[in-house]
Write a structure and sequence with these properties.
Helices cover 41% and strands 14% of the residues. By secondary structure, it is of the alpha/beta class.
Length: 417
């Protein structure tokens, strides 16, 4: 179980900065420093007025107070208030400094010495600059997403994003974290703490159509090839080193696939992709509402998952009883287990209710390691996803808001296709 613990915002130590040598993460609130500076400036003005008038009074041989004008007396009367403000600001800054000392931890890649019984805490979700741009302007960008994706900065970021993933997957050390290959202005990540070790877990940013940058022909830059709309190479399946993954999840590994669409589709795809990342599932559970011939189904189940597969040829309904997949997950799970859940049953209304249930269930949020969810929406240049309004009324802004909520609650939520 990875617990969720919300703390104040973090600011990444940038390369070349004083703290980047350790890959550390700091809390930094410039408002405290600016408040202190303003108070100090006011105090300096008061002291300057007092000194000037003192010199004048000495020269005229009369009390300092009598030498002050009415305005200067009012300004001087503010002295105790300014002093109190400075003391309060200083006290708050000291408290923040002490808090910083508690969480000023180096970023660790090797978690092998971590106590397996310790609970890992998700400290914060850190969206990249690229994702923040889309978050802040999604109302505007969703009117013409491709216009934005074809702007120079987004074109460069898309290319760097894909190149980083390719370098990671083709590297001679595929068990390293993707963090060794990524620029942090592009990739988002989670901060997870376990046994006073702080770990960064990378994840793809929420930008564009929430899928491969070149999945829409109108969004593909000149000189690049458009990929299939179902291309999944943009996903980050294990945004940490294998040692770190095994330290966070020392128990059993489960794949729960809601909407398998056959014996050798997403089930096989997940098995192969996770295997390449060094992760082997102990059990695989699949649900499919379309009636499949048992003999034909089991004949084509890949041998790599044949003995691990639990197949339910029934629809996933909204009766959240002990037979519902979410309750199956709850009953299977033990501390230290890893659970990957995919939700794509091609019934948008049902999917949305199940996804909302996950969002509102703190226990399920803690249990799930990764959540793959296709949230249907309508958007320009996207006839493949332009679902009729009676099935889905969502747009890109709704999708962005929902996935941000999931990630802000500590869940590694990926947009599925």
């Amino acid at each position: 179980m990875v617990a969720w613990n919300q703390v104040p915002r973090y600011i990444e130590a940038q390369p070349g900065s004083q703290n980047s040598r350790f890959g550390s993460t700091l809390i930094n609130d410039p408002s405290s420093a600016s408040s202190f500076a303003a108070a100090a400036y006011t105090a300096a003005v008061i002291l300057w007025v007092m000194a000037a008038q003192a010199a004048l009074a000495i020269g005229e041989r009369k009390p300092i107070w009598d030498a002050l004008s009415e305005g200067q007396r009012k300004l001087l009367g503010m002295g105790p208030l300014v002093l109190l403000l400075m003391m309060a600001t200083f006290f708050l800054m000291r408290r923040r400094h002490k808090y910083n000392e508690q969480i000023y931890l180096p970023i660790w890649r090797d978690m092998s010495t971590t106590d397996e019984s310790a609970i890992a805490e998700v400290i914060s979700y850190i969206p990249s600059l690229w994702e923040m741009d889309w978050r802040m302007h999604i109302k505007e960008y969703q009117k013409d997403p491709c216009k934005k994706m074809l702007q120079r900065l987004d074109v460069e970021r898309s290319a760097e994003f894909l190149a980083s993933l390719t370098n990671w997957r083709l590297s001679s050390q595929p068990l390293l974290s993707v963090e060794d290959f990524i620029p942090h202005d592009i990739f988002s990540y989670f901060l997870v703490q376990k046994n006073q070790k702080l770990l960064k877990i990378a994840i793809e940013p929420l930008v564009g159509y929430f899928r491969h940058p070149y999945a829409i022909s109108q969004c593909t830059p000149q000189g690049q090839n458009t990929v299939h709309v179902l291309d999944l190479s943009y996903l980050v399946f294990r945004g940490m080193s294998l040692d770190a993954f095994n330290a966070l999840y020392p128990g059993r590994k489960y794949l729960i696939d809601l909407g398998i669409n056959g014996p050798n589709r997403s089930l096989l795809w997940f098995q192969e992709r996770y295997n390449k990342m060094g992760i082997e599932f102990d059990e695989v559970w699949g649900w499919e509402k379309r009636e499949l011939d048992p003999q034909s189904f089991w004949r084509y189940v890949p041998s790599s998952i044949y003995s691990k597969l639990h197949f339910m040829n029934v629809a996933v309904d909204l009766n959240f009883d002990e037979r519902h997949p979410l309750e199956v997950i709850r009953n299977l799970y033990k501390d230290g287990d890893y659970v990957a859940l995919k939700l794509d049953i091609d019934s948008p209304g049902f999917e949305e209710i199940i996804a909302d249930r996950i969002l509102d269930d703190p226990e399920i949020l803690k249990i799930l390691g990764d959540f793959y969810y296709e949230m249907h929406f309508g958007a320009p240049y996207f006839p493949y996803h332009n679902i009729p309004s009676n099935d889905s009324i969502y747009n890109m802004e709704n999708v962005m808001a929902f996935f941000v909520q999931l990630r802000d609650k500590g869940l590694r939520a990926h947009y599925w296709v």
